[in-house]
Specification:
The chain is α+β, with helices and mostly antiparallel strands and 150 residues long. It contains 1 helix and 10 strands; from the N terminus they run αββββββββββ. It has one helix at residues 2-27; strands at residues 32-37, 44-53, 56-64, 73-74, 84-85, 90-98, 101-109, 114-123, 128-134, 141-148. It has an 8-stranded antiparallel barrel with strand order 1-2-3-6-7-8-9-10. The protein has a two-stranded antiparallel sheet with strand order 4-5. The longest helix is centred in the N-terminal third of the chain and has 26 residues, at 2-27. It starts with a helix and ends with a strand.
């Protein structure tokens, strides 16, 4: 009889844990350290720290993984960012929670110096971040998957 009670308790406990997993994923936040990976080479490009202030997300580059011919400064950026060090550069800004996504932001591509509209969405239980940069409408852009580091 006691074995049956333990089995029933274990089954109920496991069931409760499984039901709570989607809720935990929905409550996950993109705040933290992320590694982005080059679309072409598959090699790590940078570590970006996403923070939240007043419900608005921003992301700053903490570390870059440069190829021998790459510059650690944003040579193609405009204005005050021209020749700014990539480390410390805010590349994500203005993102606000909109359902399961964060939208209304901008993303800077330090390689081209161009700024795009952006939105992000957590996937894989908060372990991955789908980062989309686009011009005008979201269909005209490209996405990257960033991997959570902490």
């Amino acid at each position: 009889m006691q074995i049956l009670n333990r089995s029933a308790f274990l089954a109920l406990s496991l069931g409760a844990m499984i039901v709570s997993l989607p809720a935990q994923a929905q409550n996950a936040s993109p705040v933290g350290l992320w590694r982005n990976v080059d679309d072409v080479s598959g090699k790590p490009r940078a570590l970006i720290r996403i923070t939240e202030t007043g419900g608005v997300l921003q992301g700053k580059v903490e570390k870059v993984f440069l190829a021998p011919n790459e510059s650690p400064i944003c040579t193609k950026c405009d204005g005050a960012l021209k020749n700014a060090p990539v480390v410390g550069l805010t590349i994500l800004s203005g993102l606000k929670k909109d359902g399961a996504e964060y939208t209304g932001g901008q993303i800077l591509d330090p390689d081209s110096g161009k700024v795009y509209s952006s939105k992000i969405r957590l996937t894989d239980g908060g372990k991955k971040l789908n980062v989309r940069g686009y011009i005008g409408v979201s269909m005209l852009g490209r996405s990257q998957i960033w991997l959570r580091q902490e």
